Each structure stands twice: as structure tokens, then as C-alpha cells.
């Protein structure tokens, strides 16, 4: 198996033999995560906007998805995610940005004192979190929000850096082509989808470790 390190925290490879499921393909490179309430393999297909749906597809529809880390509102987000192409379309791209760019030149103490919270309570509890703590970076412009003044200021600086930085754009245009992303270190998103690209399908699966 050949693989390429696109940037720190992102591996590009092709996984799977004829008849392989995404779960079997993922087991070739790591340990598949078992997350209560989350399907092992999630099929990502472009969908029209649905205001009632608390998801990126529901909120942004066929528009571009902003850069974020998955499950940023969780106490401990999944470590890795794998995106595997099932139905390719070269016109739609996955966007990638290392978190180092986002927190560049930030004072470590200020980051520690900047407190955030999930937009909604999880299991009726309010969890206080930081953008970077214990080696874990998190960011989501929708599902987490600042809890104090320092966090509001930090949030604005992060948004500005993201807007000013051109992300890496990757087109998964062959069946079985994969991106393995360190969800504690890299943000990802998606470019907008035109009607003729609506058949694109990417499978997503979470991993607890990667062995490459």
C-alpha cells in the first residue's frame, strides 16, 4: 500500500480491494472507533439545506462547509477520521488546514484562560472546554461558542486567520481513494456542490489509532 503525507496530520492513500467495505478497508490501517449513538460508517452525500437538521448538511446544504474539527463540542473528540471515496466527482474538493496556522503566535496562557462551551448542553450538562488542551485542538464556528471575554477575542482572531489563509484543496476522484485526518490537529471542510455533482459519495469512519 502506497501512501503520501500531504501535510502534518493528513495521509493520502488508496484503500480496499474488490468487494471491500469501508470498515474492512479502515481495519487495514488502524483501529475502528466504536462510538455510542454514531454509525460506524457514515455515508456523506450532498443534500439540500434543511433548517431543522442540526448538522452541516442541514445548515449549509450544497454550499461550502466551513473549516472545523469533527465533534468539537464533545469532551473528547474522535482522534482520527477517514474519508473514503465511493462515488467520485473531481469538481468537489475537501479542504484542509493544519491547526498550527490557526493558533499561530497565540499566548499559551491566554489560550488556557479562554473558555468555550457547546452551543447546546450535552446530556443536560454544560462542559467547559478550551480550543487547545492536552494535545487536542478543536474548532467549530457553529457548535461551540465563547464563554468569556478572552474566548470571544480569541474566537475572532481564529476566524480572521482562517479567512485569510488558503487551505489545501484535495479532490478524491478515484474509488477507494482516502484521506486519513488527525482530528486533534487538522481542520477540514468542503467546497460547494453544483447540481451535476450531487451524486458524489464519501464514506466517513472514525479511528482510535492509525498504523502506517
Task: Give an overview of the whole structure.
There is one protein chain. This protein is an alpha+beta fold. The chain is 17% helix and 32% strand. It has five helices and 15 strands. Strands 1, 2, 3, 4, 6, 13 and 15 form a seven-stranded antiparallel sheet that branches. The chain has a four-stranded antiparallel sheet with strand order 5-14-7-12. A hairpin with a 2-residue loop joins strand 1 (3-7) and strand 2.
Detail the topology: elements first, then pairings.
Blueprint: E1 3-7, E2 10-14, H1 22-27, E3 30-32, E4 41-44, H2 56-60, E5 65-68, E6 80-87, E7 94-98, H3 99-102, H4 108-113, E8 116-118, E9 132-133, E10 136-137, E11 144-146, H5 149-164, E12 168-170, E13 177-182, E14 186-190, E15 201-210
Antiparallel strand pairs: 1-2, 2-13, 3-15, 4-15, 5-14, 6-13, 6-15, 7-12, 7-14, 8-11, 9-10
